[in-house]
Amino acid sequence: MTTTATSAPQHKASPAPQSTTPRWTFDAARALxxxxxxxxxxxxxxxxxxxxxPNEVQMSTLLSIKTGGCAENCGYCSQSSHFETGLxxxxxxxxxxxxxxxxxxxxxxxxxxxxxxxxREPKDRDIDTLCxxxxxxxxMGMETCMTLGxxxxxxxxxxxxxxxxxxxxxxxxxxxxxxxxxxxxTLADRLxxxxxxxxxxxNVCCGGIIGMGEAREDRIGMLLLLANMQIPPESVxxxxxxxxxxxxxGNSHAVEGxxxxxxxxxxxxxxxxxxxxxxxxxxxxxEELQALCFLAGANSIxxxxxxxxxxxxAKERDDRLWAKLGIxxxxx
Length: 332
Ligand code: SAM
Ligand code: DTB
Ligand code: SF4
Prior knowledge:
- With 332 residues, the protein is an alpha/beta fold.
- The chain is 37% helix and 14% strand.
- The chain has eleven helices and ten strands.
- Strands 1, 2, 3, 4, 5, 6, 7, 8, 9 and 10 form a ten-stranded parallel β-sheet that branches.
- Strand 3 (143-147), helix 5 (153-161) and strand 4 form a beta-alpha-beta unit.
- The chain is globular and about 50 Å long.
- The site of S-adenosylmethionine has 19 residues, from strand 6.
């Protein structure tokens, strides 16, 4: 087997010392990514089995608590007000509706509940309501995650105080491709929010999208930035672009399946103790491609008919796949 990577970080135990030596170099990450597929999957499985039960997958559910009308111009997004996607914008959902959706998610087998809002950033006046949502969902015994756009330090502290377990804020792609995707905020803006989340004591959920026309180098660049963070994200969503008509990336072609699986495997090896989430894009994936993603180390998915604004596989279809693969839902 080709062993080109540096030794695997055990990043959950303690923050990396303040050092300028990155865990991964670009060349090591590229060699890892490009090694023969069988070796790559073996290495990913080995890393996965050191930290997780390989037959368990965390079932999460996503709820759009505020849809559309977003001021940002992310080129992939149905919810940006810069593009005509036909999506109807709505205001922040009432607490009651969130409670009902969370109860349904729990009854459907979810142990993690993620709430997403199409905002550039939340307003201070909304934070109390958001904290109540966190409180209610946690009271049902589910892990909580929110994605609300940029956060100030004090907003992050208030959400952490309410018990929010994870904050999702993606870098989306590699640094060199970033401006091809969004120009209304910088990568540095994203990193500032991630720092506020970290300092407030929440777990970081940060990943990106594959299939936006980026090169393999950009995919590697994205993983490199994540894996070299002082503390790598505990949660790494890997989304396959869901092309949305009316957006600049609406006519994108899907990345070839094996390349997608290589990205998942590299994420698993470079961040061995993190949850690697096979997020958007499952609706159009074959059973075989999803099975390869799980073999490569993905261990969390979204269940339920909808993601935020797009479709997700129906329960019957997912249940058939879990039965064929012997996959069990993670219980905690
Ligand atoms: N407005 C917040 C933000 O951008 O941080 C939260 C919501 S946003 C929809 C959350 C993430 O979903 C994005 O960062 C992006 O990675 C992912 N996403 C959005 N639209 C997508 C699409 N069409 N296909 C795949 N992933 C998508
Ligand atoms: C993430 O990385 N993927 C999820 C979650 N974070 C919020 C969102 C996927 C959205 C897919 C497109 C949609 O349904 O609008
Ligand atoms: Fe807004 Fe988030 Fe969509 Fe970007 S990804 S347009 S920030 S909702």
